[in-house]
Automatic annotation (TrEMBL):
Species assigned in the record: Palleronia pontilimi
Record-level Gene Ontology MF annotations: ATP binding; kinase activity
The protein's name: Four-carbon acid sugar kinase family protein
Domain Four-carbon acid sugar kinase nucleotide binding stretches: 255-330
Gene3D superfamilies named among the record's database cross-references: Four-carbon acid sugar kinase, nucleotide binding domain, Putative sugar-binding, N-terminal domain
Positions of the Four-carbon acid sugar kinase N-terminal domain: 5-127
Family label: Belongs to the four-carbon acid sugar kinase family.
InterPro entries: 4-carb_acid_sugar_kinase_N, 4-carb_acid_sugar_kinase_N_sf, NBD_C, NBD_C_sf
Keywords, comma-separated and alphabetical: ATP-binding, Carbohydrate metabolism, Kinase, Nucleotide-binding, Transferase
Signal peptide: none
Organism phylogeny: Bacteria, Pseudomonadati, Pseudomonadota, Alphaproteobacteria, Rhodobacterales
Amino acid sequence: MLQVLIIADDLTGALDSAVAFAGGGRRVLVARGVSFLAEALERAPEVLSVNLASREGDAATARTRMDACLGQIDVDKVPVVMKKVDSRLKGHVGVECAALADAMAPERIVVLPAVPQMGRVQVDGAVSGDGIDAPIALAPLFDRPVTIPDATTDAHLDDAVRVEGRVLWVGARGLGFALARRLYGRVTAGGGGLSRPLVIAVGSRDPITLRQVDVLHDLAPVTALPDGRVAGIIEREPVGILQMTDSGAGRAPADAARDFAEAVVSHLRAARPAALLATGGETAQAILDRLDIGVLDVVAELAPGLPISTVRVPWGMLQIATKSGGFGGPLLMEQIVRGR
């Protein structure tokens, strides 16, 4: 029976919140879009995270996708319902939460986007901290009364989720882990390293990711794909890194991203790796599209913010780890390549 429902607006968020509940023999699934929801439900997960893929679209699309999701799930029968939001409140938070609240009629809405582990906290009704230029007031995002506890530590999050009654939980990674601790005790979702052969697909051009890749050249071959296009032969290696670069030709980012995903998938089919690390949520989405994968089994966390899932592909089982472009310290990718 479905015990926990998480509804996110992007893939990395859906995975990053779901991994909090991994372990203990629980089946934790992520539906990569509303169109894959029926397939996920057929597999009878205990925890289900759904990606609406609505962050970059307009508010009307966000509402339509939320309604389509809720049309397939009886939320009244799900004990714990969480609306996953970005800790910097990107996307259509108010619209999606209003639709979800209308469907489940909660006794209260508790808003906890704080992620103390990432240096993002909430005090006096606003979230602030690392990566946030100015405090973001939370109450104005909603069209109805909400409860906004102070939360500057994980212990504060643990205290906040002890609320009884029918609650709509609204928050980010920190809230997911607090709810998992409340339901299942201390959760250990560590899963060691990624298997070899390993392909790393670097589609993000975030400066943080670029710095992480810069230190890898002495450890593994880095193949540049200018504007996403293959410029030569991609060798099969125990660890191979494919990086989309900017040729300076002014090519449209969407076209470059499309070609990059197609090149990565072509290499995957030829190299038949055991694991894939994709940087950037859009990169992961595009690769999974081309592999025709709609549902992921979330099994572990490689490092905080790097969930590992497993999927079946034509050559067997494939581990997939995802990392948002702006996440992690400068040595994160090096540690992954070294298997630390």
